[in-house]
Amino acid sequence: MSDSHFARQLQREVRQRRTFGIISHPDAGKTTLTEKFLLFGGAIQQAGAVKAKKATRHARSDWMKVEQDRGISVTSSVMKFEYGDCELNLLDTPGHQDFSEDTYRVLTAVDSALMVIDSVKGVESQTEKLMQVCRMRSIPIMTFINKLDRDGREPLELLDEIEDKLGIQAVPMTWPIGMGKRFQGVYDLINGELRFFETAENKGARPREATVVKDLESEELDRLLGETAANELREDVELLSGAGYPFDHEAYLAGKQTPVFFGSAVNNFGVQELLDNFVRLAPAPKAREAETRMVAPEEPEFSGVVFKIQANMDPDHRDRIAFMRICSGKFERGMRVRHHRLKKNMQLGNAIIFMARDRAGAEEAWPGDIVGLPNHGTLKIGDTLTSKEELKFLGIPNFAPEFFQRVILKNPLKSKQLEKGLAQLAEEGAIQFFRPITGREFILGAIGALQFDITAGRLKTEYGVEATYEPVQIYAVRWVESENKKQLQEVRKKYHNSLVEDAQGAPALFFPTRWRLEKAEEDWPEVRFTHVKEH
Ligand code: GDP
Prior knowledge:
One of its GO terms (molecular function) is GTPase activity. Keywords: Cytoplasm, GTP-binding, Nucleotide-binding, Protein biosynthesis. It is found in: Cytoplasm. This is Peptide chain release factor 3. By secondary structure, the chain is an alpha+beta fold. It folds into three domains: about 20-280, Rossmann fold (3-Layer(aba) Sandwich), CATH 3.40.50; about 290-385, P-loop containing nucleotide triphosphate hydrolases (Rossmann fold), CATH 3.40.50.300; about 400-535, 2-Layer Sandwich (Alpha-Beta Plaits), CATH 3.30.70.3280. Helix content is about 30%, strand content about 30%. It contains 15 helices and 33 strands. It is globular and about 80 Å long. The protein starts with a helix and ends with a strand. Bound molecules: guanosine-5'-diphosphate. Guanosine-5'-diphosphate (GDP) binds near residues 149 and 265.
């Protein structure tokens, strides 16, 4: 293939890709929406397929068994499907008890996110947490307000809440007409079209295709919606045009504005418009920052970065799957690459690509795609692989844990095994740990409580470590950094008893209360107490 032909193909492949995650609080409708997307994409034939997967995922014992039967431990972490001219890579950001550091880290591998909000409940805690990460990375967010078939909160109130709690301008693209039993459909504010919600009762009574409304003042609108609903819509639209901001694509791409769509996922209403707008507006893979320079996806040389490791739950097979996002060039089966951290060459023989229903050997893949690489510990989170140049991608951070447990060994002679086990689990990103400067104990840190169970289980089965785990009263841990060495020294002295080191030996502080943390920030203005540490 000639160089220019290859360059054109690469450009086309990059332009077609949308790599994204769905962020939401449990039960807002993420799974339902995913399923409808896959149906539209033709990746699954019937509803229920994703549900079944989810059920097994949450019943942990079943899950482990299923995984053991399959030999490797990958559920629906990544799904690839096509829609129109686009190739979509949807990355799972688990909620519930599965919520963990991985959930955050996955967001470093996406180019944009879709936020699902339950119209009855509004913005909930998990969404806020995930949004913090999106904002940190300036990830563009599109919003879907779901469950309009139920009596929910006022749409204007919901938009206000998004702005207040999430700190992002919310720009409605569609507007709901009524809700709950009175829900009639949405008005497309951009194209001036009405789309009717079809229920079992009113089926066939209204046009299925979008109806263009040239003039909101026309009597036609009263006829279509009834006078009350028509007047409400007129008032709302007038209010919006006065108060709202116009949609600005650049502001969306910069993560400053979120376009908002209304609908009902379970009724498949508003989903196709959402998906159409998503592929139209969401960004294709972008340039990514490496230590030495920015790397554009259209560069012909291959590069990729590992952002997630999933270990096998089966102790007989110690292999792990490293998830790599392709950042530039073309991936080919069996290609030889440079492993930047180990300064070694390696061959990528058995890469896997994950589809909605199954997985397959990856013959080729392009920027934005995610491939799974089975390995025995050679690949770690943050590792960069390239076809030639020595590169190191940035931006796979550690997030400060929010839950803490102390490890108490049942047999003190096993401390070597504990140390080794924890070091490896921390490298995988399964758990974080800290050691007080003044003591020899290990304090585990997690973002989701399930991480503790998994760590305890794996320490026992894989490393023969029997231990008990005690909760510790810690409000927060913060890494401490400063260019002002004197202040840093003073901080270390003052907080000697709460000074700890993380797995890589970086200094951090435990704070027992929020007040103590705020006091420290006030007292030492030149010291950064950060909750994010770049790898
Ligand atoms: P997830 O936890 O975010 O993945 O949420 P699910 O997709 O599992 O949905 C949670 C519940 O809400 C399920 O019982 C769905 O059937 C229901 N649900 C999803 N979308 C809608 C909707 O548009 N309207 C109503 N009434 N229920 C919905």
